[in-house]
Amino acid sequence: MKFRTLLVLLGASAGLAACNTSSPRPVPVAANPAPSGVEGTWTDPNGLNSTFSAGQFVTRTTDGTNTQMASGTYTTGPNGVIQINLYSNVKRTSSLVNCALVAQSQLNCTSDAGSQFTLTRRM
Q1: Tell me: the pLDDT tens digits for 9-55?
Q2: pTM score, whole prediction
Q3: How many folded domains does the chain comprise?
Q4: Which residue segment(s) compose the domain that 105 sits in?
Q5: Which pLDDT tens digit goes with each residue over 75-104?
Q6: What is the SS3 assignment for 4?
Q7: Is residue 110 part of a domain?
Q8: Within-domain flag for 27
Q9: Residue 67 lies in a domain
């Protein structure tokens, strides 16, 4: 009787072990989060790339030389206006530019001289 009970227990444990040997489940991959704020790389109609990162701003050419055209700092005010203190390496002048993030991929800007331009987020 003990031998038969032992066989039943061994059979039951083997059956349970078979239930637990499933293949590992794949880990879900998180999608890239949507960009927030102005951080990232933006392009203008003239073919320049502007990068905003941790309060620093740099504009470079995309013609293969990667020449720095402008640089500066930026802040985002409580009203959402992005203010850029820009130094132009070409004109050797400083200017203040105010920008509004009108969409996740569009930044409308106006310089202190009144000229307007739009930047488009590069993905």
Answers
A1: 444 444 444 445 455 666 555 555 556 799 999 999 998 999 999 99
A2: 0.70
A3: 1
A4: 40-121
A5: 999 999 999 999 999 999 999 999 999 999
A6: helix
A7: yes
A8: no
A9: yes
